[in-house]
Design a protein that fits this description.
By secondary structure, the chain is of the alpha+beta class. It has 5 helices and 8 strands. The longest helix is centred in the last third of the chain and has 12 residues.
Length: 176
C-alpha cells in the first residue's frame, strides 16, 4: 500500500459505529453489486469512471477497450482507488440537516494489472457477465484479442453502513 493510501485508510473512521469490520460483510457488498467507481490519476489529475466488474473473493476485474483514457492512465500509474455502494436510499428526518444517506459502501486501494493469461481473462469475463445473466458464453478470439481485462489486487479495504436495522453502538465522544 502506498504511504498516502495507508494514511487515508489507516486512520480511525470518524463514525466508527458505522464501520464494517467483518471481511465477509465487505466481500458480500463486493459480490452483490454490478458497478464499481474506479478512481485513477495521472500527473496529479484525477479521473473517475464507473465500470462493470467481477469479484472472485480476492481480486476485482473489469474490462475495457484496448485504448482510451483508462488504459492510458493505468499504463502510467497502476495505483487505483475503488468504491462500491449497494442499497442506496435516504433516511429522512424532521430537519433538513438531519437527512442521511442509506447505504452500504466499500472503499479500497489496490494496484491494477493487465491480464494476458487466456484462462484468467475468460474467468474474469465470466465473472462480469454472471452479474447480469446465468447464460454461459464463448468469447470469439477476435473479440478477446481487442478486449483488455484488468485485475485489481486489493491492498486495503474498508466498509461503512448506515440505515439498516439497529445502529451499531456509538463510540464515546462520537458525534454526527
Amino acid at each position: 500500500m502506498t504511504e498516502q493510501a495507508s494514511t487515508i485508510l489507516g486512520r480511525p473512521m470518524r463514525r466508527r459505529s458505522r464501520e464494517i469490520t467483518n471481511r465477509a460483510e465487505i466481500d458480500a457488498i463486493l459480490a452483490g453489486d454490478k458497478v464499481m467507481h474506479l478512481a485513477l490519476a495521472r500527473d496529479n489529475v484525477p479521473f473517475l469512471v464507473p465500470v462493470f466488474y467481477g469479484f472472485d473473493g480476492a481480486a476485482l476485474y473489469f474490462h475495457s477497450a484496448s485504448a482510451g483514457t483508462k488504459i492510458d492512465i493505468l499504463k502510467a500509474n497502476n495505483r487505483v482507488c475503488f468504491e462500491v455502494t449497494t442499497e442506496h436510499g435516504v433516511v429522512s428526518a424532521d430537519a433538513a440537516c438531519d437527512f442521511e444517506a442509506r447505504h452500504r459502501t466499500v472503499i479500497g486501494f489496490g494496484h491494477a494489472s493487465f491480464v494476458d493469461d487466456h484462462a484468467e481473462k475468460v474467468k474474469a469475463l465470466d465473472l462480469i457477465v454472471s452479474r447480469f445473466t446465468e447464460r454461459k458464453f464463448d468469447y470469439p478470439p477476435e473479440k478477446l484479442g481487442i478486449t483488455k481485462v484488468i485485475r485489481i489486487d486489493i491492498d486495503s479495504i474498508r466498509g461503512k453502513a448506515y440505515g439498516f436495522g439497529d445502529p451499531r453502538p456509538e463510540e464515546p465522544g462520537e458525534t454526527g
